[in-house]
Amino acid sequence: QLQLVESGGGLVQAGGSLQLSCEASGSFFSIDTMAWYRQAPGKQRELVASIDRLLTTNYADFVKGRFTISRDVPRNTVYLTVNSLKPEDTAVYYCNAAGRWGQGTQVTVSS
Description:
Distance between the termini: 40 Å
Low-confidence stretches: none
């Protein structure tokens, strides 16, 4: 069974950067697309970025130019580098793959 474990969240000042990681483990054949979502308090979970096995990426409009998704396919790990953070980026960031979710990692941006 596939398990996803995120790490790398934290408290950062506006304008700062973080790198989030998500490692897939367990029993599975292969993973096509891995993605990052986020959910702010009182809001719905929304897609941030996704990347497939060919490293084709897709980004939400609100993060283009600030966030970068990357992937180490052999290590079943996906990364999200977040730059120029804004207070409105504060949310729990979740990894998603093969229909499963990680536990989330909190990102808090102070103004």
